[in-house]
Specification:
- The complex is a heterodimer of chains A (about 350) and B (about 130).
- Chain A is an alpha/beta fold and about 350 residues long.
- Chain A has 14 helices and five strands.
- In chain A, helix 4 links the parallel strand 4 and strand 5.
- Chain A is elongated and about 100 Å long.
- Chain B is elongated and about 45 Å long.
- Chain B has a single domain, classed as Four Helix Bundle (Hemerythrin (Met), subunit A) (Up-down Bundle).
- Chain B is mainly alpha-helical and about 130 residues long.
- In chain B, about 70% of the residues lie in helices and about 0% in strands.
- Classes of the chains: A alpha/beta (about 350), B mainly alpha (about 130).
- At the A-B interface, helix 1 of A face helix 2, helix 3, helix 5 and helix 6 of B.
Chain lengths: ~350, ~130
C-alpha cells in the first residue's frame, strides 16, 4: 500500500493546521491526544509515511505513545518525529531511547520542518525497502537450504542403504548409528568448547550413516565371508576407511561442504583408537576428530547389543561393562564419561528402533 | 493583513516575518489564529490556575500551551513571559510569578487593543 498519509498528534490546533499546510501533498490525519494517535495508528498504519508527535498532550502524552508503540509490531516501520517545546527535562534522551527518528523544537521554521520530515520519510522508505529485500532473500536462501538438506538426507539415505544391502546387515544398523550419535552429541552440547549447535549435530548424525561407505569397494569374498578373516583378508577389510573417502571425493554432488567434511572424517577415522592402535592412520588421543570418536564408540556399542552372523546380541549391561573394561577398544575419558551418562538413553533408543517392524 | 496591523504588530514586538514564514505566507490564516489566540480561554484560565496551591500543575500546562501558541504566532514578548512563568512553576520558584503574570496581562491587553483598532478581528475568517 502506498504510504500517502501523515499523522499529526498535537493538542494545539495551530500546530496541526500549520503542518497540514506544509504537507499539502500528503493526506494529514489529526489526533488531539496520545490515545487518538494510537487509535488512528492501529487503523491506518499501512499508509502512514511518518508520525509527527507532540510531547505534552492531555489524556496520553508523547512519551506514553512511544512506549505503547514499542509493543506494536506494525509500528516499527513508521518513523516518528517528535515536535516539542524546549525546556522539557531529558526529553531528547527519553524520546530517542524510545526509538524516535528525529526531534524538532517549537516554534519551528516551516521550510526546515518540511526538509527534515521529507528526509526522514525517504530514509525510512529506503530502509524499509532494503529490509524487505533482505527478508525476501533470506527466505529464498532458507528454502534453498531446506531443499539442499532434504536432497543430502535422501542421498545419504540411499548411499547407506546400498552399503547395508551389500553388507547384508539389517537396515536398522545405520539408523541406530545416526540416533546413537545424536544422543552422544546432545550430551556433548553441554561443553561449549565444541561449538555443537543443533544444526551441526544434525549434520554429524547424518554423516555418521556413511561411516562404512567404503565397504562397497570390498570384494564379496571378504565382505561376506561367514567365518573369521585371515590376516590378509583383514588387511583388505581395513581399507574400507580410505576407500570410503576416495568414493566420497567422487560423489561431488554432496554439495554441503560441512556435511562432506564430517562424512570424510568419520569414514576415515571411525576405526582409530585413543591409544593409537587403530587404523588406518594410527591417530592418537585428540588427533582423532571428535565426530569420529563418537561414531567409533556407538558403532562398538551397537555391534555388541545386536545379533550378528557370528554372535548373539549381548544384553545392554554386559555391553556397557565390556566397553568400560576396555575389551572392545580404547576410548577417550571424555567419550567414556559421556557414554556412561547417556547409557540409559542409548539403550532405550536401541529398544525403540528394534521394535520397529 | 492590512499595513496598519502589520506595522502595529512589529512595533508591539512580534516577529511577523518568522510567523508568516511558518504559516507559508498565508496572511489570512495568520490573522485568524491571532484573533483566535486573543479570544481563547487560556489567558484568564492561567490567572485562576496560578492561585491554586502548589504544585500548580494545571497552571504549568496552561503556560506551556500559551508559550507554544505565542511562539508559533511570533508573539515574542508574550512567548518569553510564558516561558518564564512555565520555568518558575517547574522550578517551584513562585517569588516573581505575580509580576510576570501582570506583565503578560499587560502585553496581552495591548495586543487585543491592536487587533481591535486595526479592524481585523471580524474581517478575517478561520481557515
Amino acid at each position: 500500500m502506498k504510504k500517502n498519509a501523515i499523522l499529526v498528534a498535537d493538542d494545539q490546533e495551530i500546530n496541526r493546521v500549520i503542518i497540514k499546510q506544509i504537507f499539502s501533498a500528503y493526506e494529514t490525519l489529526e489526533a488531539v491526544n496520545g490515545r487518538e494517535c494510537l487509535q488512528i495508528l492501529e487503523k491506518e498504519h499501512e499508509r502512514l509515511a511518518v508520525i509527527l508527535l507532540d510531547c505534552v498532550m492531555p489524556v496520553m502524552n508523547g512519551l506514553e505513545v512511544l512506549d505503547a508503540m514499542l509493543r506494536l509490531p506494525y509500528a516499527k516501520t513508521i518513523p516518528v518525529i517528535m515536535i516539542t517545546g524546549m525546556n522539557i527535562d531529558n526529553i531528547e534522551s527519553d524520546a530517542y531511547e524510545r526509538g524516535i527518528a528525529d526531534i524538532i523544537y517549537k516554534p519551528f521554521h516551516s521550510s526546515i520542518v518540511y526538509k527534515r520530515v521529507m528526509n526522514t520519510i525517504e530514509l525510512y522508505q529506503h530502509k524499509n525497502e532494503l529490509e524487505a529485500l533482505v527478508q525476501e532473500q533470506f527466505q529464498k536462501l532458507e528454502q534453498k537450504n531446506e531443499l539442499l538438506a532434504h536432497l543430502n538426507e535422501a542421498l545419504i539415505d540411499s548411499l547407506s542403504t546400498i552399503v547395508e544391502f551389500r553388507n547384508t546387515e539389517s537396515g536398522m544398523h545405520i539408523r541406530r548409528i545416526r540416533e546413537l550419535t545424536r544422543i552422544m552429541l546432545k550430551e556433548l552440547q553441554n561443553k561449549p568448547e565444541f561449538g555443537l549447535t543443533d544444526q551441526k549435530i544434525d549434520k554429524i548424525a547424518s554423516a555418521a550413516m556413511l561411516h562404512d561407505f567404503g565397504k562397497i569397494a570390498i570384494p564379496d569374498a571378504v565382505l561376506l565371508k561367514p567365518g573369521k578373516l585371515t590376516p590378509e583378508e583383514f588387511e583388505i577389510m581395513k581399507t574400507h576407511c580410505e576407500q570410503g573417502c576416495a568414493l566420497l571425493k567422487r560423489v561431488s554432488f554432496l554439495e554441503d561442504r560441512e556435511l562432506y567434511q564430517y562424512s570424510y572424517e568419520i569414514c576415515l577415522s571411525h576405526h582409530e583408537r585413543y591409544d593409537g592402535r587403530g587404523y588406518p592412520q594410527h591417530l592418537k588421543g585428540d588427533q582423532i576428530p571428535l565426530n569420529a570418536q563418537v561414531v567409533s564408540i556407538v558403532d562398538v556399542y551397537d555391534a555388541l547389543v545386536s545379533d550378528r552372523c557370528y554372535k548373539k546380541a549381548y544384553p545392554h549391561e554386559q555391553a556397557v561393562k565390556m566397553i568400560l573394561n576396555g575389551e572392545c577398544g580404547t576410548f577417550s575419558p571424555l567419550m567414556i564419561d559421556v557414554f556412561v551418562k547417556v547409557q540409559d538413553k542409548l539403550n532405550a533408543c536401541v529398544q525403540r528402533l528394534n521394535a520397529i517392524p | 493583513m492590512n499595513a496598519e496591523l502589520d506595522d502595529g504588530l512589529r512595533k508591539w514586538g512580534a516577529d511577523v516575518d518568522g510567523a508568516l514564514n511558518r504559516f507559508l505566507h498565508n496572511e489570512t490564516m495568520y490573522v485568524a489564529f491571532l484573533n483566535k489566540f486573543v479570544a481563547g480561554p487560556e489567558m484568564p484560565a492561567l490567572k485562576v490556575a496560578l492561585r491554586q496551591p502548589v504544585p500548580k500543575s494545571e497552571a504549568q500546562d496552561i503556560a506551556h500551551t500559551l508559550k507554544g501558541v505565542a511562539g508559533n504566532l511570533g508573539l515574542n514578548p508574550l512567548y518569553k513571559l510564558y516561558m518564564k512563568i512555565n520555568d518558575s512553576i517547574k522550578n517551584s520558584d513562585f517569588s516573581g510569578i505575580d509580576s510576570m503574570y501582570a506583565s503578560a496581562e499587560e502585553q496581552f491587553a495591548s495586543l487585543c487593543k491592536l487587533l481591535e483598532t486595526a479592524g481585523n478581528k471580524t474581517s478575517e475568517a478561520m481557515p
